[in-house]
Amino acid sequence: MNSQQIIRVKILAIFILCFFKSINGSDNFKFSYTGIIIIDNKQLSFSIYFNKKKGKLEGYSLTNIGNQNETKSKLSGLYFKSDKSYQLVETGIIETKSKIDTNSFCFIKMQLFEKGKLGNKRLEGYFTASLKNDSICTEGKILLIPKKKIEKKLKKIEKKISTNVPLKNETTTILKSGDEHLLYCKNQIIKVEISDADLEDGDRIELKINDNVVLDNYTTTKKIMTITYNLVKEETNIYVKSISDGKSPPNTSVVKIIDGDNVNPIIAEMKKDQTVKIKLVYEKK
Questions:
Q1: Which domain holds residue 183?
Q2: Does residue 166 have a cis bond before it (omega within 30 degrees)?
Q3: Are residues 39 and 143 in the same domain?
Q4: pTM greater than 0.85
């Protein structure tokens, strides 16, 4: 399997996971594509729906399909027949499941090109994401496949993926200042993973386990920091404190508690100097 085939399988896999959970695509739009945006090797689900008339496009996009940050944005742009390219831009939010302040949202500008023939048709290109004040949040690549093509292959690929790639049911918990979350652990050795919730904007945290500062003034990024910890006591308290909100307040850091096969994603959403608490309870066998 070559690299292009691997990428297409990944797109199809992501679509299957999100297909039944996403905001439904409207049948009023003639063109629909679904796939991924890639930021420093991190993949986020992404779909676009639009109508095309005399080279002008109107529709909407879906980002973070199927999770707590799923967002539907208004989309407009142009199609250039000479080089089969699209210039598209998100112009505003239609609806979102995210609890993050919408002033912190970044809007995508993209240039896409039609690639491939017959059964291999797709859209590929690059994008930049900017805040309302035009300051750039990030940039990356977009890979999209016609949605109708994916729906035809859905049953065939779903069976293969369910056999070879067991899926874990991860429920994300969002904590705000002063919140406390209780987890019961089955294993004495756990892992704590820390990363930025979405885009790197300079969020800094202090992470303390009981009375010990494990991370001091640590800048969260998309690269995951992993801490392995031995639950010696029956109760262990993890404190996450915001040292800085970064460029796009509030501070939104991800803390995953991995207890064997159980993965517990937690998003800590805080302003500067605010703290959230995660209590782990382990009963020795």
A1: 173-282
A2: no
A3: yes
A4: no
